[in-house]
């Protein structure tokens, strides 16, 4: 069994209390940092630890922070992102529900490193129980002097509020999230950098909650310890892998970064439920369909990139041999077409057209030309305004690259070969 | 009209906020809870509380999944149609879209997606992944998750909901 860090306090029935979090070493990092470290030393430790963002993009967290200019104005904001509305992704719910104070401490540490005054945790509507849990634990933390004014007598003031979303996928994108909090229509906004002008025009840092939850452990045990948790060279830390679909034990597993995909599916998640493994989306719905030949890939950012895939959020969605991957992609593209924010044309017009082509193929009404056109469109998604459309096209690109035979079979048979089995 | 007490509370919340617009979603939720959905009258009241134009608030209200601009039933069923729920139909050999749990539910209730049953009990809404993939297929009923669903367990849930005393579950999210 590998070391559990983020989920060490996970219980079957309830979240860890403040006392339980403390008993496991919680808030020691905060006391140490506020007592003896300068903000830039904290950022340096995070840089040294090699921590990369767990929300999907995998950008080094310390570098993201270092874009904040030393003379950037105040107030500054931290936005812990708990939106995760991508199919297959549920790790943040598990994380919040098992140990909320870990995220609270991580958020305060990020606040100190960036000399911010306020954090606004952005949370999706289907996580209302977690939202209420957060609110209760914020006030416990305030009562204990861990949050609010003059934290632990250090003179550092920092508070956390909650923002309840009314639910749209695009709110997971950092700049759209900022607009959502501002009471504007949430769409990506690429003008300027968040670290210069984010929420209310102020310097802002958006971090995924899993990323923030790593901070107390890094600060308490040191960057080298954190690096050593990974089993792949160059990797750092553990990762929450949400495994779902046709596996025997769908759940969220905390494993070292770099754990082979095969091991995650066949050992930890109990192997296949019934039929043989056919394909998976390795990092959530906006990553490429992966074929059995790549099952031995190490689940870290670099190894996946080397074979043309992405770690994304680490949400592994497993399909068995009984699944028609054309209709799976039809489902995915239908989802993305509906969730498009509609701001730019390639995404707004292109995704419904991709859906149309997939439907034709699925119904057996397509010729090979349709498959080629699907490929051209999927590539054209790179010309959209934000990363949503290329992400939406990713499963289809995997389908075209790795499962072209299945597409051709639909065309040749003039119907779905999986129907009526 | 909103009751005076609720209006005062909301006014206080909005005033306490450095940026009133930050409260837009919270105020819409509160007004929706009162009317059962975000009615035209409610939208106008919410906009004036927030110091926004009705059009500005409409832009938000119609964008979000959990704000209802049309009347909904006592129970809003957000059935996840994400790819994981879609594939996890136990014992259902064929993975066709027309046989998803959404379709089964709609057939049971005699409604189409987006519609409300004639008795005003249930509204079925399609939903972006609700984040309960390990319990797939899953749905959210007035914010409470159910899963993994089978045709049998779904029938049971519907029966339970039908027998809930009125007002037992708040119409919220
Ligand atoms: S790519 Fe899609 S989600 Fe992104 S800005 Fe364009 S329309 Fe909106």
Describe what you observe in this structure.
The complex is a heterodimer of chains A (421) and B (173). Chain A has 421 residues and is of the alpha/beta class. Chain A is built from 17 helices and 8 strands. Chain A has a 4-stranded parallel sheet, with helices on both faces. In chain A, strand 5 (238-245) and strand 6 (251-256) form a beta hairpin. In chain A, helix 2 (28-36) runs parallel beside helix 6 (100-113) and helix 14 (345-362) runs antiparallel to helix 15 (368-380). The mean pLDDT of chain A is 95. Chain B has 7 helices and 4 strands. Residues 91-95 and 168-173 of chain B have low confidence and may be disordered. Chains A and B meet through strand 5, strand 8 and helix 13 of A and helix 2 and helix 5 of B. Iron/sulfur cluster is lined by residues 170, 187-188, 340-344, 347-348, 384-386, 388-389 of chain A.
Instruction: Specify Rg of chain B, calculated over alpha carbons.
Output: 18 Å
Cα shape of chain A: globular
**Main sheet of chain B, how many strands, which sense, barrel?**
4 strands, mixed
User: Which ligands occur here?
Assistant: iron/sulfur cluster
Give the fraction of residues assigned to helices of chain A. 40-55%
How many strand segments of chain B? 4
For the termini of chain B, the CA-CA separation is: 22 Å
**Structure class of chain A:** alpha/beta
Spatial sequence of strands, sheet with the most strands of chain A: 3-2-1-4
**How many DSSP H or I helices of chain B?**
7
H/E series of chain A: HHHHEHHEHEHEHHEEHEHEHHHHH
Structural class of chain B: alpha+beta
Radius of gyration of chain A: 22 Å
Q: Are there runs of chain B of 5+ residues with pLDDT below 50, and where?
A: 91-95, 168-173
